Amino acid sequence: MKKLIFLFVSLLTFTVSAQNADSDYSIVVADVDIMKLEGVEYIELVGQQKLLSFEVNVFVDYGQQVQLFGKAQTIRDDSKGTFANGTGMNKDFKSMIDALNFFNSRGWEYVNQYVVTSANSNVYHILLKRKD
């Protein structure tokens, strides 16, 4: 009986890990999964250092219309687990390189970058292209 239970648990673990390996990533920005949007080949990451912190706030521009008092442009990573309402965990980035690595591992590749200095603060812009 113990061997049967062990075999069942092993098979279940293998099945779940195989499903996770084959599943596509999702990157949710303000309740929109940008990985499922048709016609979005390029995105821009815009980052600025958080106040009194070494982390950065990252905004993803995929061509969406942004309203002044609209929905927060938070980035969710559904692969890190979900809340009770089914939404993924909000993603915080330690640096712009952390954000770049996150998006690269999910199917985006680096194209170009530039920095704009405004009021003694740097705003980082990184252009990414969907990998073929």
Summarize this structure briefly.
The chain is built from two helices and eight strands; from the N terminus they run H-E-E-E-E-E-E-H-E-E.
Which secondary structure elements does this structure contain, and how are they paired or packed?
Layout: H1 2-22, E1 27-29, E2 32-33, E3 42-49, E4 56-61, E5 75-82, E6 88-90, H2 96-104, E7 108-118, E8 121-130
Antiparallel strand pairs: 1-2, 1-5, 3-4, 3-8, 5-6, 7-8
Considering the chains and any ligands shown, give keywords for the structure.
39% strand; 132 residues; single chain; four-stranded antiparallel beta sheet; 8 strands; alpha+beta
Structural features, described:
By secondary structure, the protein is of the alpha+beta class. The protein has one domain. The protein is built from 2 helices and 8 strands, in the order αββββββαββ. The strands form 2 sheets. The protein has a 4-stranded antiparallel beta sheet with strand order 2-1-5-6, with no helix packed on it. β5 and β6 form a beta hairpin. Residues 11-23 have low confidence and may be disordered.
